[in-house]
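Reviewer 2 asked us to include a model.

Predict the structure of this chain.
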Amino acid sequence: MSDLPVMAPVVTVETADYWAATAEGRLLLKRCDACAHVIWYPRAICPDCHSTETSWFEASGQGAIYTFTVNRKGDGPWKEAAPYVLAYVELDEGPRVMTNIVDCDVDSVAIGQRVTAVWDDTGQGNALLRFRPA
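Predicted model (structure tokens):
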């Protein structure tokens, strides 16, 4: 568990399976059965071909930092967490996810750096996806 603020997500019918898996430390993604596009953020319709034929699969939780910024100031609960890293991680399965890089020296983070998924428990039966250096 990182020192970053953890707020419970809004769980919808479309995202319920994703959030349930996070409580088990598993990263579920959707894949379009028609065009094989890997979908992030979970939804029922493929953003690439607009098919409604999608299915869940378990992702590796591995990826690389696509881009990032180090936030040295914050507001509210984030003020106490500064400095922290906000990043886009490109998952090995293809999608890019906005997340935080945790358990690291913020000044050592680099584009292309390999990362692995970690989970911050929300206390509400689910967890937030974050990454640490691999």
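The mean pLDDT is 96. The longest helix spans residues 16-22. We have added this to the supplementary material.
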